[in-house]
Design goal:
Length: about 325
């Protein structure tokens, strides 16, 4: 690290290793904190959801380690890392993101960060990554090399029902109850739940409210390569909020047209990630007017999502 000191900190050192966790999704922050706290040497001193706030916390707290997502509001994680390197040069940075683009990984590591962990690998890879970083070495998630070798799809295709949320949970009546509670909590006009079909690597609608056949046909299966709110949430594993469908460049022309014809002017898509860090799907709510849900609704959304994931997993064990 370019810090003026070459001393390396490790998990066996007696002084606590001070950590700031940065992710805009509350469930991920909880998961990271719980995982890190298995090591008593690791002390969580900051928990933030915004890129600019991460820079401010780094400057104020001068942490030893920062876990940093890429898809952050106000300031994306890559730009936040660059600024953190200026205000807290001794802080080691590890990106924890679901973005698998090798271009993005290279840009992230070019900031001086010491590691990159794919979120789906975090359950088994986070603590080893931290250990390697604190020894002054670089860590890159194993699944990124799987991507390079082209084996990820084959691995996913071979998994059974127990590892496919769409097959495992798709017929559960609990999904409609969950969707109704989310729509009520956010004052939405429409909504849907999509579960991840890991065999085909797509999102599939399993519950909806307020939509007609054209919308349902178009969004029946959404892939990583599509251009809409839920596909972006799928790629980034973070909440996506679109205040105005009519003007936001996130959408393809076709997707925008289908949404506007369905009288959708704003939308939010929230990933559903269980306590084992397994990506289950997306819950989206849609609104007739621009603006979307108010920020004070996010805690209710996250609490309802967490409760739903615990319940549905318990019912299918």
């Amino acid at each position: 690290m370019a810090s003026g000191s070459t001393e390396q900190r490790g998990l066996d050192d007696t002084a606590p290793i001070r950590v700031v966790v940065v992710d805009d999704y509350q469930q991920w922050r909880r998961f990271f904190s719980t995982t890190l706290q298995r090591q008593p040497e690791l002390q969580i001193i900051g928990d933030v959801s915004d890129g600019l706030e991460a820079v401010q916390q780094a400057q104020q707290l001068q942490p030893d380690l920062i876990l940093l997502d890429i898809g952050l509001p106000t300031l994306n994680g890559i730009e936040a890392a660059r600024r953190i390197r200026e205000v807290s040069p001794a802080s080691r940075i590890v990106f924890v993101s679901e973005n698998r683009s090798l271009d993005i990984v290279e840009k992230a590591l070019s900031t001086g960060a010491g590691g990159y962990v794919v979120k789906s690998d975090a359950a088994s890879g986070l603590l080893p990554a931290v250990k390697v970083l604190l020894e002054g070495k670089r860590f890159i998630s194993a699944s990124l090399s799987q991507q390079v070798l082209g084996t990820t799809s084959d691995t996913r295709a071979s998994r059974g029902i127990e590892d496919n949320p769409y097959l495992q949970f798709g017929r559960s009546a609990l999904i409609y109850e969950f969707l109704a509670s989310i729509i009520e909590a956010t004052g939405a006009d429409f909504g849907n739940v999509q579960l991840f079909d890991s065999r085909n690597r797509v999102l599939r609608i399993v519950a909806h409210h307020g939509f007609e056949s054209e919308y349902l046909r178009y969004f029946d299966m959404v892939s990583y390569d599509d251009h809409c709110a839920c596909s972006t949430a799928l790629n980034e594993r973070s909440r996506i909020v679109v205040a105005d469908v009519a003007t936001d460049p996130l959408f393809s022309t076709d997707a925008r047209g289908v949404l506007l014809k369905a009288n959708v002017r704003s939308v939010q898509s929230t990933p559903l990630i269980d306590s084992r860090a397994i990506f289950v799907g997306i819950v989206s709510t849609h609104y007739n007017d621009p603006g979307g849900p108010k920020p004070d609704m996010w805690k209710s959304v996250d609490d309802l999502a967490a409760s739903f994931l615990v319940t549905i997993s318990g019912c299918h064990q």
